[in-house]
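Q: Convert this sequence to structure tokens.
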Amino acid sequence: MIYEQIINSEQETEKLAYQLADKLEPSDVLTLEGDLGAGKTTFTKSVAKGLGITRTVNSPTFTILKQYEGRVPLNHLDVYRLADSDEDLGWDELFYGDAVSIIEWAHLIKEDLPPERLAIQIQRLEDDKRKFTFTPLGKRYERLCEELFE
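A:
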């Protein structure tokens, strides 16, 4: 099942992200897709805040990975610069470790992603209005979405 929600403001984005963060557990993997400016990093910042992370969260575009400590640790990846890379960057250690992983531009490393994950597409409709599409891949994420959207 696919879940969609229209968000009309940054505050609504924060609320959705906090609700999601409350349900996240170690080893959860979220993939974020959307055009530049769609709100991937804004959503990630709010998830981080919901996980109790107090450090400033910003896009890891030039470093690929940033790690943060909270109620559950967070791995924030932006793999945009890995489009043509064949390097093994130790994804298993990240994706199956004790942290939540959020991956921006995840389609660029599709073959390296775990089969079970929560795929989130963010589409900018106008100004602050966004459409979030949640596609759960695996039973864990199906339950998570059922709880989130009940």
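The longest helix spans residues 10-21.
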